[in-house]
Amino acid sequence: MVDHMRRCLELAAEALALKEVPVGCVFTVNGQIIAESKNSVNATHNPTRHAEINCIDQILEYCRLNNIDYKLYFKNVIVYVTVEPCIMCAAALNNLNIREVVYGCPNDRFGGNTVLDVSNFYEQNYILNGNLLADEAMMLLKEFYKGINPNAPESKVKKDKKV
Amino acid sequence: MEPPVKRNRIDDSINSITIKNQTGIDNLIDSIINSKNQPQIILGDEYYQTLPLIKVFIGHVKQPKDISKLFEILNDKLPLKHLLHLKRVRKKDILLSPVSFLNSDTQESIQEYIERNIPEIKDCFEYFREATVPLTPPLTRKQYMENLRHWSLNFHPNHYIETIMSDQPFKQSEARNHRIYMALTFEIVKWYFNIKSYEDILQSDFSAAVVVDPTINSVVTLAVDNRHEHPLQHPAMLAIDNVAKTQEGGVWKIDIDDTLKEDLKEKFKIQYGTRSGTAESPYLCTGYYVYLLREPCIMCSMGLVHARAKKIFFSLDTPLGGLKSKTKLQCIESLNHRFEVFTGFL
């Protein structure tokens, strides 16, 4: 478990180096990593390209190429991610019937459990566990928010600085 | 001469629903464009609910000349604190305190309380009674009017809220644009999924998205449901990615058919284009309006928050919807971006 989260932290650090919000994620089946990615919102100009969404895309492509029913495949997936999935990602992971999510630090801004408990809206839910290497994950976020988001418009940048 | 036939709205009667369901898709699209009804905003429940009530003690004053003195003494000794939306005095009645203010263990009456704590006014009242009054301030004129029978209230109408909640929140020309762009979503679904009637729409779960830059009244992008191929490719998610493509980004290689785009342009007299690449190049979906045939799911609703869309419009509710049916993401105060949501096209 800890090894998977360490890999997520490496991915998050890579994201930070690219001036992305530092979040890293791996999807595993039977303890093996089957997809890994990091946040790529600024690179793609698409605010939904979170690490989890990128991993889901990779697995869907893998299933498509290998004629695997993704619905069955996702049922065995355990997700490791450095920051609690946001409301959007939590809903996506619920839709796909993921088995379990393990996160690093909570997400006070958008968390799919902390800000709005998305599990209330679905009949089946994944198991959610948090606070694995939380300090490391949080350090990376703090590092990012010390700097500036290169894609945000001017006025917003100034506001962020004050906070 | 025959009396004019009044066309009912969909929810008016069972009969009109049956008729509506059999409506051909083209007639439905026409009626969306030509309807005189304007889209209606979806605000937080607090704007629609009847106000919660609270029990209070009222003292009936013997001498009207005592009222101003009582008013001052009571504001000092028994301030209303969280109930400042309630007027202190109505005719010869004075609001004293919430019933819950008295210690229920000692079973002290309001009369005993006053005799013990504010003896200087104990002889001013003819009698005491309990009344029920609103616990929270009215947010709308409707809530204000509904609650006046309980007690006199302080109310400062929010003019923006009153307008946006009215039957005519938009200028006529704006409202027509909203209806045309919504009609596009139906036309797209009709083209892709062989939809022939309103019934077909209701029996399916297909949806489509139209993103508009209202500052230049231009369609930025279109998207159609691809959920059956790819579980993330809901119209809103595709639309957000398509907008990214107009900003030198984007990930998914999927787009609306070019023939359809041309057909739509001709039939609905719309134009395509963005301000991307100009000095006013938008950031993500900032300032954009997003039209969806169906209420977006929770994933898409949050995607639209991340994308910073300005207004969202949809026609049909969905069971797992994130803007009306399951939750109202637009009402979560802690999110860093909020948009307005409208429905009511059918």
From TrEMBL, chain A:
Record keywords: Hydrolase included?
A: yes
Q: GO terms for CC? A: cytoplasm; nucleus
Lipid biosynthesis keyword on record: no
Its Gene Ontology molecular function terms?
tRNA-specific adenosine-34 deaminase activity
PROSITE patterns per the record?
CYT_DCMP_DEAMINASES_2 (PS51747)
- Residue ranges occupied by any CMP/dCMP-type deaminase domain in the UniProt entry: 1-115
One GO BP on record is: tRNA wobble adenosine to inosine editing
Q: Which UniProt keywords apply?
A: Hydrolase
> Where, if anywhere, are coiled coils annotated?
none
According to UniProt, the name of this protein is CMP/dCMP-type deaminase domain-containing protein
TrEMBL record, chain B:
Segments passing through the bilayer: none
An example GO CC term for this entry is: cytoplasm
GO molecular function terms attached to this record: tRNA-specific adenosine-34 deaminase activity
Q: Which GO terms describe its biological process?
A: tRNA processing
> Record keywords: tRNA processing included?
yes
Q: Which InterPro entries match?
A: CMP_dCMP_dom, Cytidine_deaminase-like
Keywords (alphabetical) are: tRNA processing
Alphabetical list of Gene3D superfamilies matching this protein: Cytidine Deaminase, domain 2
Q: Keyword tRNA processing, does the record have it?
A: yes
Highest taxon in the source lineage = Eukaryota
Which residue intervals define the domain CMP/dCMP-type deaminase in the entry?
Answer: 176-342
**PANTHER family, alphabetically?**
CYTOSINE DEAMINASE FAMILY MEMBER (PTHR11079), INACTIVE TRNA-SPECIFIC ADENOSINE DEAMINASE-LIKE PROTEIN 3-RELATED (PTHR11079:SF156)
Q: Name the family.
A: Belongs to the cytidine and deoxycytidylate deaminase family. ADAT3 subfamily.
- Which protein is depicted? CMP/dCMP-type deaminase domain-containing protein
Q: Which organism is it from?
A: Bombyx mori (Silk moth)
